[in-house]
C-alpha cells in the first residue's frame, strides 16, 4: 500500500510569506505527527493529532505555526509570516492506534527554504 | 523533561565486524525507546522498539538493541555489519508520563567499509 506522502517536496518562499505544507498519512492511521528537522539534527516534535483533534501541540515554536486535520486524514501545517529560521525539512509521520508505544511511518519530507 | 543523547556523530566499522551505535536517555516515567534509520534520499524507517519485557529486542535487518535501565542506555547492535547498513541512525524516546511527544537524538552516521 501507499506510504505517507508529503507535498510539495520542496518549497522556496520569501521572508514574511505564508506557506502550507500537506501530509497524506497511511490509510486508516488515526495518529499523525509533524516534525521539523534542521541540518545535522534529529527530528523535532511539533504536534500530534489523534483523529481530527490536536492532542499535543506542545512542540509548536510560536503562534505563527498552526496545523489542522479537519477530516481525520490529510493534515496541513501552516506557517504565517515565515522567517529565515523556519528553513528546515518538515516531516510528517503516521501510526496506527493511539498508544504511545506504536512505531511511526515517516513521509519523505518537505524542504522549506525561506529567503 | 525527556532527552536523548547519541554521543557519537559517526561510527566506522569494517564489513563483517560487529557494530554498536550508542544511545542514552533521560525520562521522568518509564521509557519507550525506538531506533529509526534514514538512508540517503529516503524517509526515516522504523528498526525496533523497547516497550516492556525482555531487555534484548530484535528488529529489522538483523539489528538488535539492549535496554539497560541502570545505565539508562539503549544501544543498537548488529553482530556482522554490511556495507548496505551505512546510513544515519536515530534513537528516540517517549516518556510514559509525557504524552505523545517523541524526542529524537541528533543521529549517528554509520559508515561500513568493505
How would you explain this protein's 3D organization?
- The complex is a heterodimer of chains A (115) and B (114).
- With 115 residues, chain A is mostly beta strands.
- Chain A has strands at residues 5-7, 10-13, 19-24, 31-37, 44-50, 53-56, 65-68, 75-79, 88-95, 105-106, 110-114.
- In chain A, strands 2, 4, 5, 6, 9, 10 and 11 form a seven-stranded mixed β-sheet that branches.
- Chain A is globular.
- Chain A starts with a strand and ends with a strand.
- The mean pLDDT of chain A is 93.
- Chain B is mainly beta.
- In chain B, the strands form three sheets. In chain B, strands 2, 5, 6, 10, 11 and 12 form a six-stranded mixed β-sheet that branches. Chain B has a four-stranded antiparallel β-sheet with strand order 3-9-8-7, with no helix packed on it. A two-stranded antiparallel sheet of chain B has the order 1-4.
- The radius of gyration of chain B is 14 Å and the shape is globular.
- Classes of the chains: A mainly beta (115), B mainly beta (114).
- The A-B interface holds A 3-4, 31, 33, 35, 40-45, 48, 50, 55-56, 58-59, 91, 93, 100-101, 103-109 and B 4, 32, 34, 36, 42-46, 49, 51, 90, 92, 94, 96, 99-107.
Give the gist of this structure.
Chain A has 115 residues and is mainly beta. In chain A, 0% of the residues lie in helices and 48% in strands.
Tally of DSSP β-strands of chain A: 11
Indicate the overall shape of chain B.
Answer: globular
In whole angstroms, the N-to-C terminal distance of chain B is: 41 Å
Total number of strands of chain B = 12
**Mean pLDDT over the residues of chain B:** 94
What string gives the helices and strands of chain B in order? Answer: EEEEEEEEEEEE
Output the structural class of chain A.
Answer: mainly beta
The oligomeric status of these chains comes to: heterodimer
Amino acid at each position: 500500500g501507499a506510504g505517507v506522502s508529503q507535498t510539495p517536496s520542496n518549497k522556496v518562499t520569501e521572508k514574511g510569506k505564508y506557506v502550507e505544507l500537506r501530509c497524506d498519512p497511511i490509510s486508516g492511521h488515526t495518529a499523525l505527527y509533524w516534525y521539523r528537522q534542521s541540518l545535522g539534527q534529529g527530528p523535532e516534535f511539533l504536534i500530534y493529532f489523534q483523529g481530527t483533534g490536536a492532542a499535543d501541540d506542545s512542540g509548536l515554536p510560536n503562534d505563527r505555526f498552526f496545523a489542522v486535520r479537519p477530516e481525520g486524514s490529510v493534515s496541513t501545517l501552516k506557517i504565517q509570516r515565515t522567517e529565515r529560521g523556519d528553513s528546515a525539512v518538515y516531516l510528517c509521520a503516521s501510526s496506527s492506534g493511539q498508544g504511545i508505544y506504536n512505531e511511526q511511518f515517516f513521509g519523505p519530507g518537505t524542504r522549506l527554504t525561506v529567503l | 523533561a525527556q532527552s536523548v543523547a547519541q554521543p557519537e556523530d559517526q561510527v566506522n566499522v569494517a564489513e563483517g565486524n560487529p557494530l554498536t551505535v550508542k544511545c542514552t536517555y533521560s525520562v521522568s516515567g518509564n521509557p519507550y525507546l525506538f531506533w529509526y534509520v534514514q538512508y540517503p534520499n529516503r524517509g526515516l524507517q522504523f528498526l525496533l522498539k523497547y516497550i516492556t519485557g525482555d531487555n534484548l529486542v530484535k528488529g529489522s535487518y538483523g539489528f538488535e538493541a539492549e535496554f539497560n535501565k541502570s545505565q539508562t542506555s539503549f544501544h543498537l547492535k548488529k553482530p556482522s555489519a554490511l556495507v548496505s547498513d551505512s546510513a544515519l541512525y536515530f534513537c528516540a524516546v517517549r516518556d510514559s508520563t509525557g504524552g505523545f511527544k517523541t524526542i529524537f537524538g541528533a543521529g549517528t552516521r554509520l559508515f561500513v567499509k568493505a
